[in-house]
Design goal:
By secondary structure, this protein is mostly helical. The chain is built from 15 helices and no strands.
Length: about 375
């Protein structure tokens, strides 16, 4: 809602260039601020950091609003950067909370899946609400969006469970800290970024394809199809038991998603395209759940797991923005229909870092097995 609010407000007050700059500045701020907030949360505790970020975001909103009133483009961009950088990554906090909560192992999958479904529903409801507010007054888009940030972040930070489990790290021994971005974590972050790029490219590709076929008016309805598929797929995936050998299921999900995206690329009329998009949406929530589950397992320091999840959130933001930009360029400078192949290509690219990460998990499992055998002997 904050990113779209920046786009609508900037466009209404200073033109489309300002709107695009505001949306890009918001994405840049989020990409930089998310991993920083994870590091600070591990050191000083999530409640303190999230509350401070939420209050600071109000200053960013005020800066953006005052700058549009004075037609100051640099001030508007600065305000949007502050809003993006201080938007608390509640999704990373939620996943760190499930990892540290004292709940049965077989319930963590459903917890992660239902949390992902809840986020997906909000992503469906948020944009239409921003559009409705923009028809009343574009100023309301940022005011209401930042109000959601303020209330939601402080509410999350003051929850008793969050205060108990996501407080500051108690280990102050001064010993050598383990590197958070280990090899497997980095490769998994690449997978998450590339799958996010496929998701970002999908929206742009669908709009471009429908415009080329003269059906641009149906783009909004058609783009609901993958979101609905993702919600239903996430609900169903929550009840699938965890795998014993990590990584295999992620590979199968990548393969399934690539096959459905190839089906999407072969359609160019609204309703067949909507059906193909619905099918492509079914693995999406499951992919996100598996990526974060594997990041949790690969994290070398459990006390700093929220920092790893925050890096994932930043990578996803960068991936969505990059995928959208690349697909837009392809749509503008390539033959008709080629843009629809961009998401499938991004997923194919994600298979390379997945393969490297999978090999490292197998080596780790072999080493652990050999060590256990030696101990038994």
């Amino acid at each position: 809602m904050c990113g779209l609010g920046s786009l609508f407000l900037g466009t209404d007050r200073m033109g489309i260039t300002a709107g695009g700059l505001g949306a890009g500045a918001f994405a840049l701020g989020a990409a930089v601020g998310t991993p920083l907030s994870g590091r600070l949360s591990a050191r000083h505790g999530t409640p303190r950091v999230f509350s401070l970020m939420a209050v600071t975001s109000v200053l960013g909103t005020l800066t953006a609003l005052l700058s549009t009133a004075g037609h100051s483009l640099p001030g508007f961009a600065l305000g949007c950067v502050i809003i993006g950088a201080t938007a608390p990554p509640v999704g990373a906090g939620m996943r760190a909370l499930w990892a540290k909560a004292d709940i049965a192992e077989h319930l963590r999958g459903p917890a992660n899946s239902l949390e992902s479904v809840g986020m997906e529903v909000l992503f469906i409801l948020g944009p239409p609400l921003v559009g409705l507010l923009a028809t009343v007054d574009p100023v309301l888009t940022l005011v209401v969006a930042d109000g959601c940030v303020l209330v939601g972040a402080i509410g999350f930070a003051t929850a008793p469970l969050v205060r108990r489990l996501l407080g500051p790290t108690t280990d102050r021994s001064g010993g050598p800290s383990r590197r958070v971005l280990s090899g497997p974590v980095v490769w998994l972050l690449c997978v998450a970024g590339l799958t996010a790029a496929a998701s970002g490219a999908m929206d742009v590709a669908v709009v471009a394809a429908l415009r080329e076929s003269g059906s641009a008016h149906s783009a909004g309805l058609v783009l609901l199809a993958p979101a609905v598929g993702s919600v239903l797929g996430g609900i169903g995936y929550g009840w699938v038991s965890a795998e014993r050998m990590p990584g295999r299921r992620l590979g199968l999900l990548l393969l399934a998603w690539m096959c459905t995206l190839i089906l999407v690329a072969t359609q160019n009329t609204p309703w067949p395209l909507a059906l193909a998009l619905f099918l492509s949406g079914i693995p999406m929530a499951a992919l996100g759940v598996e990526e974060f589950n594997l990041l949790g397992r690969a994290s070398p320091d459990p006390a700093r797991i929220q920092e790893v999840y925050s890096w994932a959130g930043s990578g996803i933001n960068v991936g969505v923005s990059t995928g959208s930009a690349v697909c837009g360029f392809v749509a503008a400078h390539s033959p008709q229909g080629l843009a629809l192949w961009t998401p499938a290509v991004a997923v194919l690219a994600a298979c390379l870092p997945y393969t490297v990460a999978r090999a490292s998990w197998r080596r780790s499992a072999s080493t652990d097995s050999a060590t256990a055998t030696e101990v038994l002997r």
